[in-house]
Automatic annotation (TrEMBL):
Protein name: ABC transporter permease
The keyword Membrane is assigned to this record: yes
Gene Ontology biological-process entries: transmembrane transport
GO cellular component: plasma membrane
Main location: membrane
Membrane topology according to the record: Multi-pass membrane protein
Keyword Cell membrane: yes
UniProt keywords, alphabetically: Cell membrane, Membrane, Transmembrane, Transmembrane helix, Transport
Domain ABC transmembrane type-1: residue ranges: 54-234
Transmembrane regions listed in the UniProt entry: 6-25, 37-55, 61-80, 120-139, 160-185, 216-234
Family, similarity comment: Belongs to the binding-protein-dependent transport system permease family.
CDD domains linked to this entry: TM_PBP2 (cd06261)
Amino acid sequence: MMRLAQLGMVVVVLGVWELLVRLGVIDEFFFPAPSNILQTIWVWVSTGYVFPHLWVTLIEAFLSFIVGGAAGLAFGFVLARVGILERLFAPFLQMFNALPRVVLAPIFLLWFGLGIWSKVAFGFTLVFFIVFFNTLEGVKSVDRVLVNNARMLGASERQLLRHVFIPSALTWIFSSLHISVGFAITGAVVGEYLGASSGVGYAIAQAQGVFDTEGVFAGMFILMFVVLLVDLGVNRIERYLLRWRPASTS
Protein backbone atom coordinates (compact mmCIF):
# COMPACT_ATOMS: atom_id res chain seq x y z
CA MET A 1 0.00 0.00 0.00
CA MET A 2 2.83 2.38 0.79
CA ARG A 3 4.43 1.74 -2.63
CA LEU A 4 1.11 2.38 -4.31
CA ALA A 5 0.70 5.61 -2.34
CA GLN A 6 4.20 6.75 -3.35
CA LEU A 7 3.51 5.89 -7.00
CA GLY A 8 0.22 7.78 -6.77
CA MET A 9 2.03 10.88 -5.47
CA VAL A 10 4.43 10.76 -8.43
CA VAL A 11 1.55 10.41 -10.89
CA VAL A 12 -0.35 13.32 -9.30
CA VAL A 13 2.68 15.64 -9.27
CA LEU A 14 3.61 14.85 -12.87
CA GLY A 15 -0.03 15.12 -13.93
CA VAL A 16 -0.48 18.55 -12.35
CA TRP A 17 2.85 19.66 -13.82
CA GLU A 18 1.79 18.49 -17.28
CA LEU A 19 -1.60 20.21 -16.97
CA LEU A 20 -0.10 23.53 -15.85
CA VAL A 21 2.31 23.49 -18.80
CA ARG A 22 -0.48 22.70 -21.26
CA LEU A 23 -2.61 25.51 -19.85
CA GLY A 24 0.29 27.96 -20.15
CA VAL A 25 0.51 28.61 -16.41
CA ILE A 26 4.12 27.36 -16.38
CA ASP A 27 6.56 28.53 -19.04
CA GLU A 28 7.58 25.46 -21.04
CA PHE A 29 11.01 26.94 -21.75
CA PHE A 30 11.96 26.81 -18.06
CA PHE A 31 9.84 23.79 -17.03
CA PRO A 32 9.18 21.51 -20.02
CA ALA A 33 6.23 19.13 -19.88
CA PRO A 34 6.95 15.75 -18.24
CA SER A 35 5.78 14.03 -21.43
CA ASN A 36 8.49 15.83 -23.42
CA ILE A 37 11.10 15.00 -20.78
CA LEU A 38 10.13 11.31 -20.88
CA GLN A 39 10.32 11.43 -24.67
CA THR A 40 13.87 12.82 -24.44
CA ILE A 41 14.78 10.09 -21.94
CA TRP A 42 13.43 7.48 -24.35
CA VAL A 43 15.51 8.94 -27.20
CA TRP A 44 18.63 8.94 -25.02
CA VAL A 45 18.02 5.32 -23.94
CA SER A 46 16.85 3.91 -27.29
CA THR A 47 19.77 5.43 -29.20
CA GLY A 48 22.26 4.41 -26.50
CA TYR A 49 23.42 8.01 -26.09
CA VAL A 50 23.15 8.03 -22.30
CA PHE A 51 24.80 4.70 -21.48
CA PRO A 52 28.50 5.64 -22.05
CA HIS A 53 27.96 8.83 -20.03
CA LEU A 54 26.11 6.96 -17.28
CA TRP A 55 28.84 4.31 -17.12
CA VAL A 56 31.54 6.94 -16.59
CA THR A 57 29.49 8.67 -13.87
CA LEU A 58 28.79 5.40 -12.07
CA ILE A 59 32.48 4.43 -12.09
CA GLU A 60 33.44 7.82 -10.64
CA ALA A 61 30.69 7.63 -8.02
CA PHE A 62 31.57 4.03 -7.10
CA LEU A 63 35.25 4.85 -6.59
CA SER A 64 34.36 7.96 -4.58
CA PHE A 65 31.95 5.94 -2.45
CA ILE A 66 34.35 3.04 -1.81
CA VAL A 67 37.48 5.10 -1.16
CA GLY A 68 35.73 7.83 0.83
CA GLY A 69 33.63 5.36 2.78
CA ALA A 70 36.59 3.10 3.63
CA ALA A 71 38.72 6.06 4.74
CA GLY A 72 35.85 7.49 6.78
CA LEU A 73 35.25 4.15 8.50
CA ALA A 74 38.93 3.61 9.28
CA PHE A 75 39.53 7.12 10.63
CA GLY A 76 36.25 7.08 12.55
CA PHE A 77 37.07 3.83 14.34
CA VAL A 78 40.66 4.80 15.10
CA LEU A 79 39.87 8.27 16.43
CA ALA A 80 36.91 6.96 18.46
CA ARG A 81 39.12 4.39 20.16
CA VAL A 82 42.20 6.61 20.64
CA GLY A 83 41.02 9.73 22.45
CA ILE A 84 44.30 11.63 22.14
CA LEU A 85 44.18 11.34 18.35
CA GLU A 86 40.60 12.61 18.30
CA ARG A 87 41.57 15.67 20.32
CA LEU A 88 44.63 16.22 18.10
CA PHE A 89 42.82 16.03 14.76
CA ALA A 90 39.41 17.45 15.76
CA PRO A 91 40.04 21.14 14.91
CA PHE A 92 41.66 20.31 11.57
CA LEU A 93 38.84 17.98 10.55
CA GLN A 94 36.29 20.63 11.47
CA MET A 95 38.14 23.23 9.38
CA PHE A 96 38.37 20.99 6.32
CA ASN A 97 34.73 19.96 6.72
CA ALA A 98 33.71 23.63 6.73
CA LEU A 99 35.36 24.28 3.35
CA PRO A 100 32.84 24.72 0.51
CA ARG A 101 33.39 21.65 -1.68
CA VAL A 102 32.72 23.53 -4.92
CA VAL A 103 35.81 25.63 -4.25
CA LEU A 104 37.92 22.46 -4.28
CA ALA A 105 36.65 21.23 -7.65
CA PRO A 106 38.77 23.61 -9.81
CA ILE A 107 41.84 22.71 -7.72
CA PHE A 108 41.27 19.00 -8.32
CA LEU A 109 40.84 19.70 -12.05
CA LEU A 110 44.25 21.39 -12.05
CA TRP A 111 45.87 18.58 -10.08
CA PHE A 112 44.31 15.54 -11.76
CA GLY A 113 43.08 16.86 -15.12
CA LEU A 114 39.75 16.23 -16.82
CA GLY A 115 39.80 12.46 -16.27
CA ILE A 116 37.91 10.46 -13.67
CA TRP A 117 40.36 11.03 -10.82
CA SER A 118 39.49 14.70 -10.37
CA LYS A 119 35.85 13.64 -9.92
CA VAL A 120 36.83 10.84 -7.55
CA ALA A 121 38.85 13.29 -5.44
CA PHE A 122 35.93 15.70 -5.35
CA GLY A 123 33.47 12.94 -4.44
CA PHE A 124 35.88 11.68 -1.78
CA THR A 125 35.67 15.02 0.07
CA LEU A 126 31.88 14.70 0.17
CA VAL A 127 31.68 11.06 1.24
CA PHE A 128 34.57 10.95 3.71
CA PHE A 129 33.29 13.44 6.25
CA ILE A 130 29.75 12.05 6.28
CA VAL A 131 30.96 8.50 6.98
CA PHE A 132 33.71 9.65 9.34
CA PHE A 133 31.53 11.70 11.69
CA ASN A 134 28.77 9.09 11.79
CA THR A 135 31.26 6.29 12.49
CA LEU A 136 32.94 8.37 15.18
CA GLU A 137 29.68 9.07 16.96
CA GLY A 138 28.44 5.52 16.47
CA VAL A 139 31.50 3.97 18.11
CA LYS A 140 31.57 6.54 20.92
CA SER A 141 27.88 5.96 21.68
CA VAL A 142 28.34 2.22 22.33
CA ASP A 143 27.03 1.29 25.78
CA ARG A 144 29.98 1.44 28.17
CA VAL A 145 28.43 -1.23 30.38
CA LEU A 146 28.46 -3.63 27.43
CA VAL A 147 32.11 -2.79 26.71
CA ASN A 148 33.14 -3.24 30.35
CA ASN A 149 31.31 -6.55 30.62
CA ALA A 150 33.05 -7.83 27.49
CA ARG A 151 36.41 -6.80 28.94
CA MET A 152 35.63 -8.55 32.22
CA LEU A 153 35.01 -11.71 30.21
CA GLY A 154 38.49 -11.39 28.70
CA ALA A 155 37.67 -9.89 25.30
CA SER A 156 40.67 -8.46 23.47
CA GLU A 157 40.59 -5.18 21.57
CA ARG A 158 40.14 -7.09 18.32
CA GLN A 159 37.24 -9.07 19.75
CA LEU A 160 35.67 -5.88 21.11
CA LEU A 161 35.91 -4.34 17.68
CA ARG A 162 34.39 -7.35 15.92
CA HIS A 163 31.67 -8.35 18.40
CA VAL A 164 30.77 -5.07 20.14
CA PHE A 165 31.78 -1.88 18.38
CA ILE A 166 31.10 -2.81 14.74
CA PRO A 167 27.64 -4.36 15.35
CA SER A 168 26.63 -1.50 17.65
CA ALA A 169 27.79 1.18 15.20
CA LEU A 170 26.30 -0.43 12.07
CA THR A 171 23.10 1.61 12.32
CA TRP A 172 25.10 4.84 12.34
CA ILE A 173 27.32 3.59 9.54
CA PHE A 174 24.46 2.61 7.25
CA SER A 175 22.72 5.89 7.97
CA SER A 176 25.80 7.65 6.62
CA LEU A 177 26.07 5.28 3.64
CA HIS A 178 22.52 6.07 2.54
CA ILE A 179 23.43 9.76 2.40
CA SER A 180 26.86 9.09 0.91
CA VAL A 181 25.43 7.28 -2.13
CA GLY A 182 23.71 10.45 -3.28
CA PHE A 183 26.69 12.62 -2.46
CA ALA A 184 29.08 10.35 -4.36
CA ILE A 185 26.96 10.72 -7.50
CA THR A 186 26.59 14.44 -6.82
CA GLY A 187 30.36 14.82 -6.60
CA ALA A 188 30.85 12.98 -9.88
CA VAL A 189 28.19 15.01 -11.70
CA VAL A 190 29.35 18.38 -10.37
CA GLY A 191 32.93 17.56 -11.34
CA GLU A 192 31.79 16.56 -14.83
CA TYR A 193 29.70 19.71 -15.10
CA LEU A 194 32.71 21.90 -14.32
CA GLY A 195 35.08 20.11 -16.68
CA ALA A 196 34.92 16.74 -18.43
CA SER A 197 34.66 15.04 -21.79
CA SER A 198 32.06 12.45 -20.77
CA GLY A 199 29.58 11.63 -18.03
CA VAL A 200 25.99 12.56 -17.21
CA GLY A 201 27.13 15.92 -15.83
CA TYR A 202 28.86 16.59 -19.14
CA ALA A 203 25.67 15.63 -21.03
CA ILE A 204 23.64 18.01 -18.85
CA ALA A 205 26.16 20.80 -19.43
CA GLN A 206 25.99 20.20 -23.19
CA ALA A 207 22.19 20.36 -23.10
CA GLN A 208 22.29 23.56 -21.05
CA GLY A 209 24.74 25.09 -23.52
CA VAL A 210 22.16 24.88 -26.32
CA PHE A 211 19.23 25.83 -24.01
CA ASP A 212 17.82 22.30 -24.19
CA THR A 213 15.91 22.28 -20.91
CA GLU A 214 14.32 18.95 -21.76
CA GLY A 215 17.79 17.42 -21.95
CA VAL A 216 18.75 19.01 -18.62
CA PHE A 217 15.67 17.59 -16.89
CA ALA A 218 16.15 14.23 -18.63
CA GLY A 219 19.65 13.97 -17.13
CA MET A 220 18.30 14.92 -13.71
CA PHE A 221 15.52 12.31 -13.89
CA ILE A 222 17.95 9.59 -14.95
CA LEU A 223 20.26 10.42 -12.03
CA MET A 224 17.37 10.36 -9.56
CA PHE A 225 16.30 6.94 -10.83
CA VAL A 226 19.85 5.58 -10.57
CA VAL A 227 20.25 6.89 -6.99
CA LEU A 228 16.95 5.24 -6.08
CA LEU A 229 18.14 1.88 -7.42
CA VAL A 230 21.49 2.12 -5.62
CA ASP A 231 19.78 3.10 -2.37
CA LEU A 232 17.52 0.06 -2.64
CA GLY A 233 20.66 -2.07 -2.93
CA VAL A 234 22.13 -0.47 0.19
CA ASN A 235 18.83 -1.13 1.99
CA ARG A 236 19.02 -4.83 1.13
CA ILE A 237 22.60 -5.07 2.40
CA GLU A 238 21.62 -3.23 5.57
CA ARG A 239 18.70 -5.59 6.26
CA TYR A 240 20.99 -8.58 5.73
CA LEU A 241 23.76 -7.35 8.04
CA LEU A 242 21.32 -6.13 10.69
CA ARG A 243 19.08 -9.21 10.60
CA TRP A 244 20.02 -9.88 14.24
CA ARG A 245 18.35 -6.63 15.31
CA PRO A 246 14.77 -6.98 16.67
CA ALA A 247 12.16 -5.79 14.19
CA SER A 248 10.51 -2.46 14.96
CA THR A 249 6.99 -2.71 16.37
CA SER A 250 6.00 0.75 15.15
